[in-house]
């Protein structure tokens, strides 16, 4: 392909004047204006041959073979009869960036599936340049969520940084679309979501699934008067594991410290007791059965953990309350203090537990999303710009097509 054809294909309005290979992977190309093409004013698209002045710009072009290509471009200011001195329009340049539009498109395409670090290594560009281009792409492509027709919400939190820094995410339960992400997990932190949603949309909300976060609960009640709170089974059972099973396991281990084999068996049984039985293999199930047969308190809390789950699967709210009363009666008969304390606290949240019989909602989708968020963070070795990070998350969970 001739230099003239090459210039017409990639750099409209210019021709290759000369080129030079520097080092082993640098190709520098010097361009000159094509005398057969009339330059056009960037303000009014008026063509004129009158040139006010010229300055040369060094811009980065897409790689050619193994070469990193740099262009030396003469950019003219025209004496436009309508606009006065105005820079000429060069469509293949990316505005005032030192990159061609083809290079910008390539960076954006690679950033969709590769980390900024690896894109920078491949193209030889600074991390900040790639981040700015990807941020620009996300702002352009990620649509503003549609708040019309929202009936059910999912709310959860995820770790933003180390040191107990959290963010809150809200998802449309039916469309599986992320509606909002904000820093913090307090009432003040999540209030902007309801302000964005607006009073009319808030009154249409029928149910909101969440963990037992009082801030979420109170803010939903304040803005969504018709919404039922639904507490997620996973979070309640996880809390039961931390506050009851773990506490009883530690206390039992201390009580039998002199019996070293039994002590080690109880001490190392944490995951056996916390995991669902269906997720244990045959050998692990045997170990669990042996442990529970030898330790009555552990047997009690383990059985009551399984029975607690049945409340969420009740066919009606009346049946859910009946199951709760049966479960609470068994707790009251036990002499296990952590269990009794947990039940007394859980009773305050009964309204959100029995509501699951009417609204079959849970935050398992958000729990899966949290794993994806961790992958996004690992790919970038963390994010300094939360706006960019939140856009990456929204782009990954754009929802179902209606």
TrEMBL record:
InterPro entries according to UniProt: Transpos_ISL3, Transposase_DDE
Where is each Transposase IS204/IS1001/IS1096/IS1165 DDE domain found?
A: 154-393
Per the UniProt entry, the signal peptide is none
Pfam families noted in UniProt: DDE_Tnp_ISL3
PANTHER family listed in its UniProt record? TRANSPOSASE FOR INSERTION SEQUENCE ELEMENT IS1557 (PTHR33498:SF1)
Q: What is this protein called?
A: ISL3 family transposase
The species this protein was found in: Guyparkeria halophila
């Amino acid at each position: 392909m001739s230099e003239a054809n090459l210039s017409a294909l990639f750099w409209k309005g210019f021709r290759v004047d000369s080129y030079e290979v520097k080092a082993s992977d640098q190709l520098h190309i010097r361009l000159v204006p094509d005398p057969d093409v009339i330059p056009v004013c960037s303000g009014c698209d008026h063509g004129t041959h009158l040139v006010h002045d010229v300055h040369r710009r060094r811009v980065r072009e897409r790689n050619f073979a193994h070469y990193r290509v740099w262009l030396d471009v003469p950019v003219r200011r025209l004496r436009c009869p309508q606009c006065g001195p105005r820079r000429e329009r060069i469509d293949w340049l990316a505005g005032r960036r030192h990159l061609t539009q083809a290079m910008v498109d390539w960076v954006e395409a690679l950033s969709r599936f590769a980390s900024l670090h690896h894109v920078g290594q491949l193209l030889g560009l600074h991390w900040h340049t790639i981040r700015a281009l990807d941020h620009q792409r996300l702002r352009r492509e990620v649509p503003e969520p549609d708040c019309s027709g929202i009936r059910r919400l999912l709310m959860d939190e995820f770790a933003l940084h180390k040191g107990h820094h959290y963010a809150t995410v809200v998802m449309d339960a039916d469309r599986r679309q992320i509606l909002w992400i904000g820093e913090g997990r307090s009432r003040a932190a999540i209030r902007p979501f309801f302000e964005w949603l607006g009073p009319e949309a808030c009154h249409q909300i029928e149910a909101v699934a969440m963990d037992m976060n009082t801030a979420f609960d109170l803010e939903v009640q304040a803005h969504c008067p018709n919404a039922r709170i639904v507490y997620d089974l996973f979070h309640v059972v996880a809390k039961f594991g931390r506050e009851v099973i773990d506490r009883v396991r530690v206390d039992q281990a201390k009580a039998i410290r002199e019996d070293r084999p039994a002590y080690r068996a109880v001490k190392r049984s944490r995951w056996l007791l916390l995991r669902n039985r269906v997720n244990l293999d045959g050998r692990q199930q045997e170990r669990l059965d042996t442990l529970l047969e030898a330790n009555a308190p552990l047997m009690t809390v383990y059985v009551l953990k399984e029975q607690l789950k049945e409340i969420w699967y009740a066919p009606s709210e009346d049946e859910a309350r009946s199951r709760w009363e049966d479960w609470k009666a068994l707790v009251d008969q036990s002499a296990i203090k952590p269990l009794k304390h947990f039940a007394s606290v859980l009773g305050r949240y009964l309204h959100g537990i029995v509501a699951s019989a009417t609204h079959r909602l849970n935050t398992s989708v958000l729990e899966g999303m949290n794993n994806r968020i961790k992958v996004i963070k690992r790919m970038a070795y963390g994010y300094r710009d939360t706006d960019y990070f939140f856009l990456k998350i929204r782009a990954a969970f754009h929802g179902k097509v209606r």
